[in-house]
């Protein structure tokens, strides 16, 4: 079910829209292979008339399943729009389409959800990727030759000479 409301229900009072929308309704699947929308979109919206327009305000949330661009690890990326708002004109050139007295909010929500997508999905901001996690000598024979320890060894020698 897309997120719609009936204009006739709005004539006397504001409307509350609370629910979940299956990710398929958002049609986000083909946008980016590293980002997948598999969880429902959760919404809690208030709809009211405002002069010759409709104002929709509320909270929109969607948890994305992402893959890190550096290390390919899967992770979850929550999109939270706690103060989402949408102004829908009821007349003029930008008039919102009305079908059987109903207005579909889905395209407006989709637009802002897409804007909140991560540009380069990373499992953590400083992810070092795949390469650095291999061949790291910890206590091997090479460990004593680290730059810091050799320099301190030389400064210790200098002290001995004095
Ligand atoms: Zn990563």
Question: Could you walk me through the main structural features you see in this protein, from its secondary elements to its overall organization?
Answer:
The chain is an alpha+beta fold. Helices cover 18% and strands 35% of the residues. The protein has three helices and seven strands, in the order ββαβββββαα. It has helices spanning 23-26, 106-115, 147-161; strands spanning 4-6, 15-21, 35-36, 41-50, 53-67, 74-89, 102-104. The strands form two sheets. Strands 2, 3, 4, 5 and 6 form a five-stranded antiparallel beta sheet that branches. Strands 1-7 form a two-stranded antiparallel sheet. The protein is elongated. The model has no long low-confidence stretch (mean pLDDT 85). Bound molecules: zinc ion (ZN). The site of zinc ion has 7 residues, from loops. Zinc ion is lined by residues 68, 70-71, 73, 122-123, 127.
Using the alpha-carbon principal axes, give the shape: elongated
Estimate percent helicity.
10-25%
The profile of the biggest β sheet is: 5 strands, antiparallel
Uncertain ranges: none
- The average pLDDT score comes to 85
| Overall radius of gyration | 27 Å
- What small molecules accompany the polymer chains? zinc ion
Keyword list:
162 residues; elongated; five-stranded antiparallel β-sheet; alpha+beta; 3 helices
């Amino acid at each position: 079910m897309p997120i719609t409301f009936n204009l006739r229900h709005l004539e006397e009072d504001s409307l509350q829209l609370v629910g979940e929308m299956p990710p398929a309704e958002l049609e986000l699947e083909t946008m980016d292979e590293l980002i997948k929308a598999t969880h429902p979109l959760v919404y809690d919206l208030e709809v009211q008339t405002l002069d010759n327009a409709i104002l929709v305000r509320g909270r929109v949330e969607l948890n994305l399943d992402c893959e890190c661009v550096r290390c390919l690890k899967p992770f979850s990326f929550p999109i939270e729009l706690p103060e989402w708002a949408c102004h829908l004109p009821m007349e003029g050139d930008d008039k919102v389409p009305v079908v059987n007295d109903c207005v579909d909010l889905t395209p407006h929500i989709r637009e802002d959800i897409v804007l909140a997508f991560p540009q380069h999905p990373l499992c953590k901001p400083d992810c070092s990727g795949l390469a650095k996690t291999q061949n790291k000598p910890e206590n091997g024979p090479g460990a004593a030759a680290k730059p810091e320890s050799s320099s301190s060894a030389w400064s210790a020698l200098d002290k001995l000479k004095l």
